[in-house]
Automatic annotation (TrEMBL):
Organism: Kordia periserrulae
Protein name: GLPGLI family protein
Top-level taxonomy: Bacteria, Pseudomonadati, Bacteroidota, Flavobacteriia, Flavobacteriales
Protein keywords: Signal
Annotated signal sequence range: 1-27
Length: 246
């Protein structure tokens, strides 16, 4: 259940991820919308971008120790966005208008046409999500900013609050914290069954704006599937994987 929360919402997380590079002024001079607008402008200049991701799942808002942890990676190459968590990866190619979800354990490639939200850029997705949060503020914490988005009403998003940490010196996002509205069952240290509102912390590190050859290959649709007309087949590297059309 907890792991599925992350998988189901990774595209939302991907959109939020793209709040990264931005030349920020003082917190007093900036609103959250202004910060993100500047981020959009800078992101458009970066055809290549990658960073490591560390996912920490906490059973409640106040829990200090994560119940589980996953490593991941995010890669942007022109119109392609690739993201991976544990043994599941997602790839969206806006130019080809195709998206892939791959479960490496089940050896399955789910191929979907990009329409509606899927055809939007990460910024456009984030912009639509931003409209659903009533309260937006920027807090000056010394060497970093915290952009906080909050809502007290039910929306299509599973989050009641999102915190985005941005390092002042590098202007890079270093962390996101997503607070879920839905309660989820868990077992505490005393083996007692409980229900709580979980949070997901994502730490971002090792940013690069130039991709190596392996990263370029990873963020390519043709590394996974071949498409001829309506016929889609796996590449040689994925010949044992089942293609599922949705």
């Amino acid at each position: 259940m907890m792991k599925q929360f992350i998988y189901n919402n990774l595209r939302v997380i991907t959109a939020i991820f793209f709040i990264s590079y931005s030349a920020l002024g003082t917190a007093q001079e900036k609103t959250v919308n202004e910060v993100l607008k500047k981020t959009q402008e800078v992101m458009e200049k970066n055809n290549q971008l990658t960073c490591n991701l560390n996912y920490n799942w906490y059973d409640t808002y106040t829990t200090d120790k994560p119940s589980f942890n996953y490593e991941g990676v995010m890669i942007k190459q022109s119109d392609v966005v690739y993201s991976k968590i544990n043994q599941t990866f997602f790839l969206t190619d806006q130019k080809a208008q195709l998206a892939i979800k791959c479960n490496e354990v089940q050896k399955a490639l789910l191929v979907t046409k990009t329409n509606g939200d899927f055809s939007q850029s990460p910024w456009e997705l984030l912009e639509s999500y931003m409209k659903q949060f009533k309260v937006k503020k920027v807090t000056d914490k010394g060497d970093y900013w915290i952009c906080t988005l909050t809502t007290d009403v039910i929306t299509q998003l599973p989050y009641g609050k999102i915190e985005i940490y941005i390092d002042k010196q590098s202007s890079l996002m270093t962390k996101q914290v997503l607070y879920f509205l839905t309660q989820v069952p868990y077992t505490n240290d005393k083996e007692e069954k409980k229900i709580g509102n979980p949070k997901l912390e994502i730490v971002l590190s090792n940013y690069k704006t130039i991709l190596n050859q392996e990263e370029k290959r990873t963020a390519k649709l043709t590394s996974y599937i071949h498409k001829k007309g309506k016929n889609i087949t796996p590449t040689a590297a994925y010949k044992t994987f089942k293609i599922i059309h949705n």
